[in-house]
């Protein structure tokens, strides 16, 4: 499903926001944890040193007051760094991690005697370890809450963006009625993008409708004087100049008829009259009527439920286009419900393959001259009978390839 694929796309903006928030939260938790750990450790060391020195002084005072043995020590019992502090300053403190247990030493030299006492720091260490565990635990709990909350919070904007993207793709594919339907309320950037896409679609539809209306009006206006021109050309005396005039008049007449046909296709007023036909025989008859050389190869005896007049129009246009813009030999293959027309010319230009046939554009000079209406009409008629016309170039030795895929026994949509 498109939604599932969008959610699984790790490069989407949705996941990038989640990753950014996760990294920010993890960085903040790590920073706070390190700061709390270091500040707690520094305070613990400071308080431990004070407590060890205080206990040493109390032990000395108790010994003088009660006559008990004072906390005397020999240099061999003390760590070297503590001894250096005592020799230099007369007193000192030192923390040891153990084993067997963490402790804080306090020592001083007084009246030629060396006094030292070791204070147990196990309770302090356990307190700091418990604090570290709580920091890690609650940091993970916070991430476990923040990440799903971020995913839920970003899903709605991501879904709206995907809706805008789907609408844009539908418009690109030719569906000029596609709209995002978000309106102009909300005032955020996504609403602005959606409104712009809808406005663009409205403007594009108006321009295309205006162009279609202009094409239809021009064709209708030209038809009446053209009929008079055809009649007048038929009355001219025979001769080379007359034949040239008649040829140009025929070209003009075919152009006007093509324009009228395109205007009917644009207006959507065409209706099919399907019946079952032998596909290979119909293609051979269509090729024969063009008067152009082409080989027809059929696999089996395929039959199709389609409008024979419109199918004839499609095949005729494809064959004429192959000769006019390509090069021989022109090969036609009928396989199942697929009709393939191939020439050995320079092939379709990249612009035509990317954007489809466009009226009054042949795409490239090497494809010859023309009005670009043949393929436009062929694709329009294919849509009416429910077929699909694919255009490509032969991957091995070049040449244009047009494949017409007829529907499999289904009633054409234009019926």
TrEMBL record:
Provide a Gene Ontology MF annotation, just one: kinase activity
Q: What is this protein called?
A: histidine kinase
Record membrane topology = Multi-pass membrane protein
Which SUPFAM superfamilies does the entry link to? ATPase domain of HSP90 chaperone/DNA topoisomerase II/histidine kinase (SSF55874), HAMP domain-like (SSF158472), Homodimeric domain of signal transducing histidine kinase (SSF47384)
Where is the segment annotated Disordered? 54-80
Q: Where is the HAMP domain?
A: 158-209
Q: Which reaction equations make up its catalytic activity? A: ATP + protein L-histidine = ADP + protein N-phospho-L-histidine
Q: Domain Histidine kinase spans what residues?
A: 217-410
Note one Pfam family from the annotation. HATPase_c
| PROSITE patterns reported in the protein's UniProt record | HAMP, HIS_KIN
> Which residue windows does the record flag with biased composition (Basic and acidic residues)?
54-65
Q: Where in the cell is it found?
A: Cell membrane
EC class, as a word, reads transferase
The EC code for this enzyme is 2.7.13.3
**Keywords in alphabetical order:** ATP-binding, Cell membrane, Kinase, Membrane, Nucleotide-binding, Phosphoprotein, Transferase, Transmembrane, Transmembrane helix
Species the sequence originates in:
Streptomyces tendae
